Amino acid sequence: MSLAIAPRDLDALERQVQAALRSGDYGVFDVLGHGEDTLVLKVRTGEGTFACKRLPPFPDYDRFQRYEETLARYVGQLSAHGITVAPTELRYLSRGRSGGVAYCVQEALPPAQLCSKLLHTRDLGWAKSFFARYLTAIGRAARPDLGLDAQASNWFDLDGELVFVDVTTPFLRDGRGREQADVGLLLTSLPWILRGAVKAVMLKAATDKYYSTRGIVLDFLGNLYKDRLDSLVPVFLEQANERLEVPLSSGEVARYYAGDARMWAIVQRLRKADRFWQRTVRRRTYPFLLPPTIRR
Ligand SMILES: Nc1ncnc2c1ncn2[C@@H]1O[C@H](COP(=O)(O)OP(=O)(O)OP(=O)(O)O)[C@@H](O)[C@H]1O
Ligand SMILES: [Mg+2]
Q: How far apart are CA 241 and CA 253, in angstroms?
């Protein structure tokens, strides 16, 4: 990105977010997209148009700096292993003694070039050539200490180059398989009903797959069901199995997606229950911008 978002524009966005969290009305936002955790907001400014993803609140600046370091290391590792990452900047807005909020800011890329969109709009020939490029990129990058959440909605195709955007969860592990990222921080948006041990087990189960080519491809194919692209599964399976040591089957993909969808549906329901509890019983402002209900 040539120019960064101006502090006043980010402050103005955060004021809008605070108001929306209080009122529960997200109507003012221009939403570029969302994943399981949050919304990505489009901000048009004199300096350019930005994609801003609000991260879970940070208890203090120190915690933010450590996260920033891990994220920089993650992006560095992805780049070193051949992945083109959209230029990404983290910004911290202090809120005094109650810590701060941070945004992950990227240039707003053209929605029509999102790969999950292109798989709907382009023909089968394009899909096959995309998937060949995709498999090469993943095969080069994924390893036991470097992972990616690489579903189609996390990539843009810009002039034939695959550009990865979803880097806010740094999938870096040490030699003993422990996550390098601040796991507690990443889990704060999971409802308190899920206690520490449950969260830790969920995290391990939910992230193991991102550290191997096979797991990433399985997740990619499973998510095609969510994007109503499952007619592509047989074609992509054939392409993937030419490269995988242990082949995947359509049954495994369907079973995987059913399990994953169930898990996320439960998390989504619990989050909404938590939000209701925080707002109506505790009379607190719920601190996360939740995505709309996701059809699975
Ligand atoms: N730089 C960008 N330009 C345009 N749209 C974007 C950009 N970054 C993200 N988006 C849109 O927002 C969606 C969600 O973004 P992203 O994948 O980064 O977040 P997420 O899946 O919610 O993240 P997480 O998996 O960490 O919860 C993308 O699928 C895309 O539609
Ligand atoms: Mg995503």
A: 13
Cβ-Cβ contacts under 8 Å for 117 (sequence gap 6 or more): 111
Do the beta carbons of residue 106 and residue 87 sit within 8 Å?
Answer: yes
Domain ranges of the chain: 7-107, 111-281
pLDDT digits (tens, 9 = 90+) for 177-231: 888 988 777 777 666 656 666 667 777 777 899 999 999 999 999 999 999 999 9
Cβ atoms of 169 and 92 closer than 8 Å: no
What number of other Cβ atoms are within 10 A of residue 152's Cβ? 22
The domain defined by 7-107 folds into Phosphorylase Kinase; domain 1 (3.30.200)
The conformation of residue 60, written as its DSSP 8-state character, comes to: S
Smallest CA separation from ligand 1 atom 31, residue: 33
Q: Are 96 and 57 in contact (CB under 8 A)?
A: no
| C-alpha 252 to ligand 1 mean position (Å) | 27
> At which residue do the structure tokens 């998390």 appear?
267
Is 199 within 8 Å of 206 (Cβ atoms)?
no
What pLDDT, in 10s, does the model give residues 36-80? 778 899 999 999 999 999 998 899 999 999 999 999 999 999 999
How far does residue 96's CA lie from ligand 1's centre (Å)? 29
